[in-house]
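I hope you will forgive my troubling you with a question about protein structure. I should value your view on which stretches of the chain appear to form regular backbone elements. Here, with my thanks, is the record as I have it:
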Amino acid sequence: MAILSRIAAVTRNKGQDMKTSSRILASIGTGIACTALVACGGGEGSGDAGGSGGGDAQQAFEARDAYMQELGDAIIVLNEMAGEQRPVDEAAFLAAARTISDRAPDMLEYFENQTIVPMSRTKPEVFANWDDFTSKHSALVQASSALTAAASSGGFAAGRPLVVPLRDTCGGCHRPYRGPEPQ
């Protein structure tokens, strides 16, 4: 909980509105809750929410959706700072980069059960082209690690040029494998 308090303080002190701070905190809290759910065997029902071993399709979708939202919220922070739409905050920039590089390696776990529910934007092509999907995942892991390393040693100035390549790995996967918002 200390980290959530720190993030709230940093975002408030840097002029972010309460809605943005709340969204970031809610996303982090959801990610923590989903991680706990996976670690505890998924709660009610059989199987886990993370993806391996079957389990409830809706639960797996909700865990995957929360996980992707967590990464998406972090890339928004990076993008807005790099695009000068948000004031530069070294700590928040590094925290967002670390969120992605720390969590990106877990992505495949959220797709292993190969479930798609009506509210999901995941296309069946993810599973039909698993080798390509995992290759794109590797590119995300590498790009996020490079950004975090640069930001850790040289701050925002060193990390900023690596935001677009990281963002491009997201789009490189979303274009072929993510469908439109469900109606």
Summary: The longest helix spans residues 130-159. The chain has one domain: 18-177.
